[in-house]
């Protein structure tokens, strides 16, 4: 959602996004487009509605766009996916710390990424990809498929989620 020079995450699910992200997760499912880049990431756990993440492009100048993450409820039933990753056991404990990864370009600040961390130091990074509507995903520093973020990782600022 754009307000002035800031584009925020969009949450179209039930309850609080922060609380949902802090829930226990056992798997990270990725849907790949025909070009073999992730276009959807779903945090899931048996019997619990998951959280689906996608990237939406926003115009910020002439022929210039920036990706912002959008979240919604994912179905409880298994989802067709191309890649499925079993997350480290520490993600099953819940109480995950979530941070926003914010990019600034052309005078626009955009919430373009997410970092989820456990107390034991495991982490998942999901950011808008360098190709429109794609995602780049890292789990504990290892890339899933091709890790191609929209901006170099050092250019993102990490900010806490507001309730």
Features:
163 residues; mainly beta; eight-stranded mixed sheet; six-stranded mixed sheet; 1 helix
Question: What is the gist of this entry?
Answer:
This protein is mainly β. The protein is 3% helix and 52% strand. The strands form two sheets. Strands 1, 2, 9, 10, 11, 12, 13 and 14 form an eight-stranded mixed beta sheet that branches. A six-stranded mixed beta sheet has the order 3-7-6-5-4-8.
Commentary on this structure:
- The protein has one helix and 14 strands; from the N terminus they run E-E-E-H-E-E-E-E-E-E-E-E-E-E-E.
- With 163 residues, it is mainly β.
- The strands form two sheets. Strands 1, 2, 9, 10, 11, 12, 13 and 14 form an eight-stranded mixed sheet that branches.
- The chain is globular and about 45 Å long.
- The two termini are 17 Å apart.
- The relative contact order is 0.23.
- The model has no long low-confidence stretch (mean pLDDT 87).
The ordered string of helix (H) and strand (E) elements is: EEEHEEEEEEEEEEE
How many helices? 1
In angstroms, what is the radius of gyration?
15 Å
Shape assignment: globular
Question: Gap between N and C termini, in Å?
Answer: 17 Å
Detail the poorly predicted runs: none
Beta-strand content estimate: over 45%
In total, the number of domains comes to 1
Number of strands: 14
């Amino acid at each position: 959602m754009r307000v002035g020079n800031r584009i925020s995450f969009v949450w179209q699910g039930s309850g609080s996004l922060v609380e949902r992200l802090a829930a226990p997760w056992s798997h990270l499912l990725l849907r790949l487009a025909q070009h073999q880049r992730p276009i959807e990431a779903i945090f899931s756990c048996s019997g619990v509605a998951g959280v689906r993440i996608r990237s939406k492009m926003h115009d910020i100048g002439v022929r210039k766009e920036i990706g912002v993450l959008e979240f919604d409820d994912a179905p409880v039933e298994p989802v067709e996916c191309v890649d499925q990753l079993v997350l480290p056991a520490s993600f099953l404990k819940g109480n995950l710390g979530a941070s926003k990864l914010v990019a600034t370009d052309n005078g626009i600040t955009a919430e373009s990424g997410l970092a989820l961390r456990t107390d034991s130091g495991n982490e998942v990074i999901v950011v808008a990809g360098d190709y429109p509507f794609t995602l780049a995903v890292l789990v504990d520093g290892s890339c899933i498929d091709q890790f191609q973020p929209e901006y170099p990782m050092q250019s993102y600022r990490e900010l806490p989620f507001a309730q």
